[in-house]
Amino acid sequence: MPDAARTSFPDRVRTLLDDLDTTSGKAIDAAAALVLESVDAGGIVHVAGAGHSLAMVFETFYRAGGLAAVRPIWDPAVVPIGDAVRSTRVEREAGVGRAVVAKAAPAPPDVAVVFSTSGRNPYPVEIAAECRARGVPVVAVTSARASEGAAARTETTLADHAGIVLDTRVPPGDVLHPAAAPRTAAASTILAAYAWSRVLAALDDLAAARGADPPRWTSANVPGGDEVNAALLARYRHRVPELTGDG
Length: 247
Prior knowledge:
- The protein is of the alpha/beta class and 247 residues long.
- The protein has a single domain, classed as Rossmann fold.
- Helices cover 44% and strands 11% of the residues.
- It has helices at residues 9-40, 54-60, 84-90, 96-104, 122-133, 144-149, 188-210, 225-236, and strands at 45-48, 70-72, 111-115, 138-142, 164-167, 175-177, 184-186.
- The strands form two sheets. It has a five-stranded parallel sheet with strand order 2-1-3-4-5, with helices on both faces. A two-stranded antiparallel sheet has the order 6-7.
- β3, α5 (122-133) and β4 (138-142) form a beta-alpha-beta unit.
- The mean pLDDT is 94.
């Protein structure tokens, strides 16, 4: 086994991916079952994140191969593009997360998936807590290690309000390189995207075993993609107003 301080960045990422598989494999299967049951029952998957965790909201919403029954819940002020300093400030403000949930008004049989590596800022914690209070099951995609090493800006963590936790295993501070004193090459998006793709793959296998066919987007860049997606847009545009700019 090579010394940890000498392993390359790709090796360290692969180690974390293997660690995620070991730590969160059962939770991934549970999340897939929960999401499939929700969608089959006519529910919507509400997804949320702030700052760079918004990359995962993009990854889940209107994505080739992704579920069509997905709605982003978000406040424009938490988007770093346009005003990065404001986005950091707003995700630390009490009440913003509760407000976005109130606007989206999730209700059973919906589910919520909340992405936050540290899971210690009020915005994601409030979203999870409010969804749970409304009877909406919560899947947290977070890192226990990062949460333990983060500034405690809330009394609870995102994971405390989730029925299912996918632990991405991201280290405190996110960065991985150089190994001896990490200062660059963040890995949270890599690991969270992998975790979500594993959920989708497990969901597909489970759906096939049950004879179900969840609504999925097709790439608009392949023949016939636009036609397939048009039917899904007609089906979900009134429940997911962000699909047509009405949200």
